[in-house]
Amino acid sequence: MKKINQKDTLELHKLLIGLLKEKLNLRLQLSSGKLKKVHLIKCVKRNIARIKTIITYRKNIIK
């Protein structure tokens, strides 16, 4: 798997959508009491922030 910085913007958007869906599923599992690994929510949120940061950085460079 490529590092996040090496992926193009389209791949990052696809990855971001997947992570947002995963975050939603984890939150639903947490509310229903089925989630045992609570730390996964924090990891997914950090990955989302990393991707959003890279996308924003690339947009600012283009301007």
Report what the structure shows.
The mean pLDDT is 93. The protein is elongated, with a radius of gyration of 14 Å. It has 63 residues and is mainly α. It has one domain (4-62). It contains two helices and no strands. The chain has helices at 9-32, 39-62.
Task: Provide the residue-averaged pLDDT.
Answer: 93
Q: Which band does the percent of strand residues land in? A: under 5%
What's the main sheet like?
none
| Computed Rg | 14 Å
How much helix is in the residues?
over 70%
Order of helices and strands: HH
Number of helices: 2
Distance between the termini: 29 Å
Question: Globular, elongated, flat, extended or rod-shaped: what is the shape?
Answer: elongated
Q: How many domains make up the 3D coordinates?
A: 1
GO biological process, one term: translation
Organism: Buchnera aphidicola (Cinara tujafilina)
InterPro entries: Ribosomal_uL29, Ribosomal_uL29_sf
Family: Belongs to the universal ribosomal protein uL29 family.
Which key features would you list for this structure?
about 60 residues, mainly alpha, 2 helices, elongated, Ribosomal_uL29_sf, Large ribosomal subunit protein uL29
